Sequence to fold (971 residues):
Amino acid sequence: MSIMPQLQQLSQSLEGTLLYDELHKILYSTDASAYRIQPIAVAIPQTEEDIVKIIRFAAKNKISITPRTAGTSLAGQTVGNGIIVDVSKHFTKIVAFDAINKTITVQPGVIRDELNLFLKPHKLFFGPNTSTSNRCMIGGMVGNNSSGTTSIRYGVTRDKIVEIKAVLSDGSLAVFNEITSAEFIEKTKGNTLESSIYKSIYEELSNVDNQIEIIKEFPKPEIHRRNTGYAIDLLLKSDLFGGTENTINIGKLLCGSEGTLAFTTEITLKVDKTPPTNSVMVVAHFHSIQESLEAVVVAMKHHLYTCEMMDDTILNCTKTNREQAKNRFFIQGDPKAVIMLEVASHYSMEDAEAQANQLIEDLEKNNFGYALPKIYGTDIDKINELRKAGLGLLGSIVGDNKAADSIEDTAVELSDLPNYIAEFSAMMERHGQSAIYYAHAGAGELHLRPVLNLKTKEGLHQFRNIATEVAVLVKKYRGSLSGEHGDGIVRGEFLPFMIGDQNYELLKRIKSAFDPNAILNIGKIVNASKMDENLRVEAGRIEPDIQTIQDFSDSLGILRAAEKCNGSGDCRKLPSAGGTLCPSYRATHNEKDTTRARANALREYLTHSEKDNKFDHEELYKVFELCVSCKACASECPSNVDVAALKAEFLYQYQKANGFSIRNKIFAFNSKLNKMGSIAPSITNFVANLSLVKKSMGIAPKREVPHLAPKTFRKWYENNKAKAESNSFVSGKVFLFCDEFTNYYDVPVGIDAYELLTTLGYEVILIHHEESGRAFISKGFLEEAKAIANTNVGIFSNLVTADCPLIGIEPSAILTFRDEYIRLADDKESAEKLAKNVFTIEEFFKKEITSGKIHSEQFSDIAKTIKIHGHCHQKSLSTIEATFAMLNVPKNSVVTIYNSGCCGMAGSFGYEKEHYDISMQMGEDTLFPKIRATDATTAIAAAGTSCRHQIFDGTNRKAMHPVSILKDCLK
Fold:
């Protein structure tokens, strides 16, 4: 019998949204784990009453519900075959704050780092600090009992629980907080589900045999980071159950229960004073994993705030990541592993320095580490960012052999760590494995990952065998199979072995007491699914052969390019986290509009579609629609998932089957049309901006179509180049790329660039060439883009050299040579060789400033304040620091860089009527407010023509290209 009529009724009763279309079921079938389970629906509740209705619906229809926030869990906790209940969009409020008692009440969708931004002015913070802290949410951290890098000093999430407000499995509300033993007994006497829960806990844990078995089988109490089933061992501290404490808090039992016991709607947390600001990080370099972990025992005798380990596999992945390559500055030699050891002082920097020196002396005395550099200030933040990117970086490994999540969360007592890892390494050797080591070493927790191909039956067999053998090894040391990631699916089936059958049956009865109808996140912790079933990939399948016009050989094909996304969710970070990724998600807060969603949807259809053209799905069009091809994902995503390239290929393949719209043709062939329009530019400008014309073209009424210049830049050059030929070109020679935007619209910028360069002694050559092809690429006209790439590579490859580079004014145009042309050109070798000598004009200036050819004496001393907004492609494929260096050449220029994301225009995207509101919202996220707050006398620099138009439309401020600003500063 179909559940659809009931789902429709439920949808109508909710203030929030219930989604049961194919696309959303696909998007929520995966998280950051290896699993794929398609739900029947996705709920986006708006109120607590919505959650009550969903739970009662689930109970009535015997459907499982799975709570979800950011979906960054690694053990499969947030996938399920029932209703996924995503609270990340609406349950984001800070409900109450008590600065005196250092407590704060939040809804489960509050992001960890956002919480700490709120607490910062009060000199307080929430300590547990996961690698996903800029997008993970408190609800998920409570569900998994997360800890992260700071647990050795500030504890784990469970330590911070004051109170949890939750909806129980019958739809009733309950509040779990600290109560006296007498109050606990009183709660067992009612007739409600809550009373039944207290009664069951009392009956089970007051049983002496159960107490003995729990003490015997659960992990050592010295192991603070552990998520082994439900935390019933901690409840034994109560004097109700043989302990000494006269208070008890069942909220601590809910922490780590992965949404299987109740649905949390509010959480009250204890917060701590902010860490000391005087800190030094010692980054110890080692020749072996074993040596590094033996050194941890020595290092932890010191008062450390951080003790984190990374191996060479992760460090090597940083070399090919545009963002993290900048953060590996501290590496000396070729270490097999490094450990980051941070000391800090509330008193003085001298005290922190003394602690660091004592730590180094102790390590050297015990012959640990071949290099022990000290790191300070913001460089510590850069190293921490690199460490946080570790999991995502593993996704960038090319091919089907991937770092598998199966044994990645083991924790043992610190003193057992060296022996444990020695046995583990020997086991890996028996399996022919060289595992990846990534550890919260100071807490005895190791994120170990074998590299397996789960697309093969052999790899799947190893997946289970290695997990089973590691469970035996962890049990030998009375460790925890999960330190912080939870049991979920991947470890749930090992619980009977880890804690014994008697304790496991006890957990099942606890689960039944909370959830008698078995609806809350079924298949996690108890009665878990098999760890090698319901995987994203199918062992033994025949991989589809996907033909593409672009060259995706760097990822071994477009399918594997999509599969690089491991779900870590970096694309869900908000503007406060910095960077640009992902503009569409920041505007809508919908999972559909993340880069993760786009990669997952593409992977799904390329793998499972039965169509000849596997791209020909409307669902793919919907998921790619709001992608603005900013390319932030290509640099900020640790897995290097270049969704802009995936979108271009999708549009090409999809439009081959469904046709190219008139509007897309107009935008794509804009340069050709502009050539005709430039015959009579004033008439063209008048007609293009008529309301009827804009309406017929689907252009937003509030937008003004950019005006064609009275004369093209190329024509100006032909008329004026003779004047410059008499100059003495002592500085060198450059080819200037006459891009289609500068040529037809931004002619004054082109003139400024030419005059600036020639005045500084450079011979500037413009030759006949094709447009960049940017418009064709963005609209999926890849055959035309490919022809342009081939032509331009053929023209420039034999002309451009290191001594005579090709430079460009418009970032999105010139950077096609370094990016898309590599995928499109038939002569890839020539394209790659050419790309090495192609620069944005800002990059060229920075290089010449460094060589001394350009210097402050060439410019006036007039004081000028400048703020820079970087074009998205500059930030991803180039660097804004080049613009900063260029504009800082005049002595009295004061230059700063806006920490701004995407402006939102994105070429034609912001002109399209259906995208206008989203485009403006992207600008409002960070850029517009900062410009409005900027003094009117401050010059705003923006290299992108789209950026300048969007800034004017959104703030009524005129931004200038950096070359125009610098040209005005010439003496």
User: Anything to note?
Assistant: The CA atoms of residues 467 and 619 lie 37 Å apart. Residues 457-476 form the longest helix (20 residues). The chain has 46 helices and 28 strands.
